[in-house]
Amino acid sequence: MYIIGITGGTGAGKTSAMNALQSFGAILLDCDEIYHELLKNNAEMKAEIEARFTNVTTEGNIDRQKLGKIVWNDPDALQDLNDITHKYVSSDIEWRIIAYTAQGGDLAAIDAIALIESGQSKKCDVIIGVTAPVEKRISRIMDRDGLTKDQAGTRINAQKPESFYIENCDYILENIYDTQDLFENKCKEFFSTLIEKKV
Question: Could you tell me which CATH number the domain at 2-197 has?
Answer without folding.
Answer: 3.40.50.300
